[in-house]
Amino acid sequence: MGFEINTFIIGPIENNTYLLFDSISGEAVLIDPAAPSHEIQKHLISNGLRLKQIWITHAHFDHIGGVHWFVEQSQGPLPVFIHPDALPLWAGAGGARDFGFDFDPGAAPQDLVRDGDLLSFGASSFTVLHTPGHTPGHVTYYCADENAAFCGDLIFYHGVGRTDLPGGDESILVKSISKKIFTLPDHTRLFPGHGRATTVEEEKLNNPFL
Predict the structure, then answer these.
(1) For 81-126, what is each residue's pLDDT tens digit?
(2) Which domains does the chain have, with CATH numbers?
């Protein structure tokens, strides 16, 4: 049956935090919890959902600000998956100092994912795509069965991720999009870290940056 998607816009930069859940098993996954959220926690409880994993696309502060809060709320172990190349950014306060404030992300996650790894919950399986450029450790989580890719700050509706921050590289970002995103089926839905969802076809035809 696949999964359902709830989008919560939270945090100081209005991030999309995605809650994916399997209505049959009640298992749920949280992608890029931007900040602590009682709204998400209440949604989990009221719908009888069990948060099983947290998946991080990259370690900028506005994508990890709620990680440890959700870990603390959990009744049991809650794995947090991240690419190893994202750990230096995590250790560097998620780049918060570049924006003029301090941020303590807490202990770094221990559950590491690499290009081609598979993650699953409920009846759904996702492939991890290493998509650097915005940051070195950026990944996209792609589910072929549901034609859905959660792409963080790699690509947006008619836009692309910033490359002017430490670790950013425009040529690498464009290569990640062309090799890992634009090779997906045209009808694949792209769920970015900010703004509205889009599709591979829409961005191939109308993204002015590509």
Answers:
(1) 999 999 999 999 999 988 888 899 999 999 999 999 999 999 999 9
(2) 4-206 (3.60.15.10)
Whose CA is closest to 17, among 45, 41, 47? 41
104 class by beta-carbon count within 10 Å (0-12 exposed, 13-18 middle, 19+ buried):
exposed
Q: Is the pLDDT of residue 191 over 60?
A: yes
Q: Which of 106, 85, 184 is nearest to 141 (CA)?
A: 184
**pLDDT, averaged across the chain:** 96
Bridge pairing between strands 15-21 and 118-121: unpaired
* DSSP H stretches of helix in the chain: 38-46, 61-64, 67-73, 87-91, 170-176, 200-206
CB atoms within 10 A of CB 208: 7
Cα separation, 83 vs 11, in Å, equals 22
Burial of 107 (0-12, 13-18, 19+ CB in 10 A): exposed
